[in-house]
Amino acid sequence: MTGSNDWRDHYAHRMMRTLGAPLARLERGEGAWVWDDEGTRYLDFLAGIAVNSLGHAHPVFVEAVSRQAATLAHVSNYFATRPTMELADRLTRLSGAGDAGRVWFGNSGAEANEAAFKLARRNNSGGARTRVLALVDAFHGRTMGSLALTGKPAMRDGFEPLPGGVTHLPSTVEALEAAMDDSVAALILEPIKGEAGVLELPPGYLEAARELTRRHGALLIVDEIQTGAGRTGEWFAYQHAGILPDAITVAKGIGGGIPIGGLVTFGHASDLFSKGQHGSTFGGNPLATSVAGAVLDEIEGADLVGNAARRGIQLRERVEGLGSPLVAGVRGRGLLVGVALAEPVAGHVSAAAMEAGLIVNAANDSTIRIAPPLTIGDAELDEFQDRFGRALAAVADTL
Ligand SMILES: *Cc1c(COP(=O)(O)O)cnc(C)c1O
C-alpha cells in the first residue's frame, strides 16, 4: 500500500512544469458530482471549466461516445462523414449564421482562435488591412497566434515575438471608436471575459462594435468558447445583444467533454478561405462531431439553455442570500457567474470550498468563478449554498 500523497510527488516529478499542484486526483463522476481517489465526493460547480455541459457520465454522452467509437471514429479530411455535416448544420442554425454560414472544425479553443486569426488575415483588402483589435485582459488561448490575441501580459511574457499587428484596447466604446479605421481587419472579443474574472462588456458595447466594424469593413469575431453552448441562457452570448457577428469560435461546452473546437463564419466571411489554406488531421472527426451533436441535441431537447437562464438567477440569489460580508457582488449571466470578493482571498475561498466538498475556481485574486453543468436543479443549488456558505465563513473567520 503506497502513501496517499505519493501521486503528488509523481505528478510534480513527471508532468511539465506549466501547471500548479493538482487539487485532487479524481476517479469518476456522475451528474454534478465527482469522486477522488480517497472516495471523497465533491459538487463540481466548475464543470471542467465550462466544458461538461451535461455534467459527468451523462447517458447521452456515454451512448454517443460508445456508439460512434464502435462505428467510425476517424477518417481524415479526405472524406466526409454524416455526423460532421450534421454538426455543421446545427451550429449554423443555432448561431444564426444561416444558409451562408460555413464551419471549420479543430480540436480546441486555441485552434479555433488560430483559424479565426488566419481568417482575419484573409480580410486584407489587397494588403491595406494589417491590424487586428482585441481587448485588454482578454483570453483567447495559449498557442502563438491565440496568445498574440490574448491581452494578459503574464501569459505573453517569455514568448515574444508573437505574431504581429494586434492592438489591445480597453473595453470601452470610446477606445474602440478611437482605434477603428479602414486598416483594421478584425475585432475579436469575448462577450463575457471568463478567464479575466467573468467581466461583462459595458452595456451597448457589442452593438457599437457591430456598427463600427461594419462601417469600416472589419470582421467582428466573437470568441464564444466559454460563453457558448447555452451557458449564459442564450445559445451564444452575442444573442443577448441581438446582433450577428461575422464569425464565432466555439469549443469547451459544445463537446461536453470530448475535445472539439470550431470556427463558424457568417455571410461574406464564409468566402475568405480557399482550398488548402487551413486544415487539421483530427478536426471534424466523426467521433468528436457525433458526440458534440448529441450533446447539443440534449441541450436543445431538454431546454438546458432555459435552465441555464433560470438556474443562473437562482444561483445568484443563493450567493446573495448567504449574506456573507466577503461577497461584494455577483457578475455574469446564466450559469457563468463571477462572485466578486471584498478581499483578495479567492485562493483561500476556493481551497476552503474544496475542504467543504465543492469545486469552484479562483479566476483572479478577488473573483470566484462558478460554471456548473447546465443540468443542475434545486438539489444541487441546495448543496452548493450550504457548501459555499461554509467556505466563505471559514475564510471570513481568519480575516
Ligand atoms: C478556454 C478558452 C480558450 C482556449 O481554449 P482551449 O481549448 O484551452 O485551447 C479560448 N478562449 C476562451 C474565451 C476560453 O475560455
TrEMBL record:
This is Acetylornithine aminotransferase. It catalyses: N(2)-acetyl-L-ornithine + 2-oxoglutarate = N-acetyl-L-glutamate 5-semialdehyde + L-glutamate. It is an enzyme of class 2 (transferase). Pyridoxal 5'-phosphate binds at residues 109-110, 139, 223-226, 281. It comes from Agromyces tropicus. Its EC number is 2.6.1.11. Its cofactor is pyridoxal 5'-phosphate. InterPro entries: AcOrn/SuccOrn_fam, Aminotrans_3, Aminotrans_3_PPA_site, Class-III_PLP-dep_AT, PyrdxlP-dep_Trfase, PyrdxlP-dep_Trfase_major, PyrdxlP-dep_Trfase_small. The gene is argD. Belongs to the class-III pyridoxal-phosphate-dependent aminotransferase family. ArgD subfamily. The lineage of its organism: Bacteria, Bacillati, Actinomycetota, Actinomycetes, Micrococcales.
